Amino acid sequence: MPFIDQHRFGTQLAQLSRAWRAELDRRLASLGLSQARWLVLLHLARFTESPTQRELAKSVGVEGPTLARLLDSLESQGLVKRHAVVEDRRAKKIMLSATAMPLIEQIETIANALRIELFVGVGEEELRTAMAVHAKVLNNLEKKS
């Protein structure tokens, strides 16, 4: 692949990511959550077992202190709870509260509607090809870390 196409691919991927998140953020504004907060809630909802604060930070892709501030805010809103880990007093397990579940359902509904709109005109084979390319690039990135 010529360098110019690789550059365009990287630029388009970054633009797509930013624009998709910005549009989702715009649609979720009525829920009173910042992008950082709804992202933490969605990541937390996808764990099958309550993660530690460290596991959640890794999943979301933020540093521990940043996540701690977000969790403070979400906890004050009554959306998450922190529980001490018996084996490690320094660690905390993060759990969604019952009041968070309807909010997460709203977030998921809005996110799914946007996803359906964004994939109009994209065929299954095109999507598979794009995913395969992204997976190869991601694999190459992971080899660097």
Automatic annotation (TrEMBL):
Gene3D superfamilies documented for this protein: Winged helix-like DNA-binding domain superfamily/Winged helix DNA-binding domain
Annotated signal peptide: none
Recorded superkingdom: Bacteria
Segments forming domain HTH marR-type: 6-139
Swiss-Prot/TrEMBL keywords: DNA-binding, Transcription, Transcription regulation
Pfam families per the UniProt record, alphabetical: MarR_2
UniProt xrefs under InterPro entries: HTH_MarR-typ (IPR000835), Tscrpt_reg_MarR-type_CS (IPR023187), WH-like_DNA-bd_sf (IPR036388), WH_DNA-bd_sf (IPR036390)
Protein name, UniProt field: Transcriptional regulator SlyA
